[in-house]
Amino acid sequence: MAALVASPREVFSEAVRAVLETWPVLQIAVDNGFGGVYSQQKADWMVDAVQQYFHDNNDLEQDEVEDFLSELMNNEFDTVVDDGSLPQVAQKVCVMFQQCKQGKLAEVRQQISQLALKKASGRAKVTPIKSPTEDAEDSNDDNDEESMECDEAGAGASVSSAAVKQQQQLSSSAPAEEEEEEEDGWTVVRKKK
After folding, report:
1. Which residue in 87, 61, 74 sits closest to 26, CA to CA?
2. What separation, in Å, do the N-terminal and C-terminal C-alpha atoms of the chain show?
3. CA 21: distance to chain centroid?
């Protein structure tokens, strides 16, 4: 860890690392390789970039830090942060920078310890979940077809391959059309023959 007598810059660097390592959006991006094979190295570099950004710019406002973090996430991880966590992360980093600048290193170290405990308690993971219709299709159908989810006019709709096959069989004697609207408002899209 840190030496007994650390400079405010070193403590701030530790604080930035602690904040970013407990930011679920960044950790999900790293764990799932959104930044490519060097995702972890990009996350480590991001700590240095944020710390340097504060030292290169005087009197940063929270919205400037939000914009900077958002730009880094977008450029390095192809991730748009829209979960509401960006203002919280920016605020934590801004507060810790001000505390380091004022010499309140003990307070910052305590916050770093709290963040380390939070990190040790677990990281967020993204795991794909199969719907019950996919499980049934996987066990009954060997054609590697999956259900398709659509979003039309703000309402979610789901069309399974079994329903498409059934509709194709029923209308196989009818002339082939690209799209056909059923009576319940669903639109069935078929391959051209």
Report:
1. 74
2. 66
3. 14
Which residues are CB-contacts of 161 (< 8 A; sequence separation ≥ 6)?
137, 141, 143, 145, 146, 147, 148
CB 46 within 8 A of CB 76: yes
Distance in angstroms (rounded) separating the CA atoms of residues 121 and 10? 25
Measured distance CA(105)–CA(158) in Å, rounded: 54
Percent of the chain with pLDDT over 70: 63
Average per-residue pLDDT in the chain? 75
Q: Which of 128, 118, 161, 91 is nearest to 27 (CA)?
A: 118
Report the SS3 class of residue 85. coil
Q: Note the pLDDT tens digit of each residue in 128-180.
A: 444 454 454 444 444 444 444 444 433 334 444 444 444 444 444 444 444 55
Separation of alpha carbons 106 and 110, rounded Å: 6
| Burial grade of 61 (CB within 10 A; 0-12, 13-18, 19 or more) | exposed
Integer Cα distance of 96 and 109 in angstroms: 10
Pick left, alpha or beta for residue 116 (phi over 0 → left; psi -120 to 50 → alpha; otherwise beta).
alpha
- Calculate the CA dihedral of residues 129, 134, 135, 140 and round it to 10 degrees: -160
